Amino acid sequence: xxSMNYYMWDAAWHDKSFANNNIKLYVGALAGxxxxxTGSYVGPDFFxxxxxxxxxxxPESFGGAMLWDMSWAYAETPNFxxxxxxxxxxxxxxxxxxxx
Length: 100
Fold this sequence. Notes:
The protein is about 40% helix and about 15% strand. With about 100 residues, the protein is an alpha+beta fold. Strand 1, helix 2 and strand 2 (about 60-70) form a beta-alpha-beta unit. Helix 2 packs parallel to helix 4. The chain is globular and about 40 Å long. The termini are far apart.
């Protein structure tokens, strides 16, 4: 397993010359406890908070989120996919009344 994280990827892309200087990085997560290795699962609230932080701190390189697999995303409560989308669009998590 790689020890790379978002911050290291962002720095690596900015330290090199690439044909495409508009590279975007996407953050992936398991969309449910049963979608993969349970030791790699993070909950929807944690994931939403991480997305908001990365989107705020890395506006030029942050591309968005991806979930494996979507059937798990919609089966979770709160809905993992809706939580992530709302965090990215509004800076709040699903059901929250204040921006974060």
